[in-house]
Specification:
Blueprint: H1 3-13, H2 18-29, H3 38-49, H4 52-69, H5 77-83, H6 90-99, H7 104-116, H8 120-125, H9 135-153
Length: 166
């Protein structure tokens, strides 16, 4: 089994599918590419999941959410996670480890997704009996990175050349 397949299973175990993330990616990129399909977006999500540094970030965040659900974190961290403390910005900081894989365009998309919380991100952010302090931000980071990957590969993107040096 490829590591990206294992990561996909971890996400599914927490109630997130690649297709749900791909739908968000499609919404982000559709204004710039009206021929883009959700299948292409899902391929981009899987490509991002194939990066080891992304996997490490996801494993860490998901593990912390799961430990918090079991009440296994030390105080006061356990209470912060249970309350989804608004000033606890570590979850966003960790998610930036995914976002920065594809540069600044991913960062701006992440900020938008963190604010608007479309689709599965909003569902995870709600209080549904599970703790998803990290996962909602990780999914936003994954969608932002997959969207940025598509933007970087767009053949219509201009390639500026440096002038030759004398």
């Amino acid at each position: 089994m490829r590591l990206s397949d294992a990561m996909e299973k971890w996400l599914e175990r927490r109630g997130v599918t690649v297709q749900e993330v791909a739908d968000i990616v499609h919404e982000l990129q559709r204004p710039y590419n009206d021929k883009l399909t959700t299948a292409e977006c899902a391929e981009s999500v899987r490509a991002v999941l194939g990066k080891r540094e992304v996997q490490y970030v996801l494993y860490t965040g998901i593990a912390l959410d799961e430990l918090a659900e079991r009440g296994l974190l030390p105080k006061p961290l356990q209470e912060m996670m249970e309350a989804d403390e608004s000033l606890y910005g570590v979850d966003e900081t960790v998610a930036l480890g995914i976002v920065h894989v594809y540069g600044m365009i991913g960062l701006t998309s992440f900020g938008y997704l963190d604010k608007v919380k479309p689709g599965v991100i909003g569902r995870l952010n709600g209080k549904g009996g599970k703790i998803h302090v990290f996962l909602d931000d990780l999914v936003a980071g994954l969608a932002a990175a997959a969207s940025a990957r598509i933007a970087h590969k767009d053949p219509r993107a201009r390639n500026y050349q440096l002038p030759e040096q004398p």
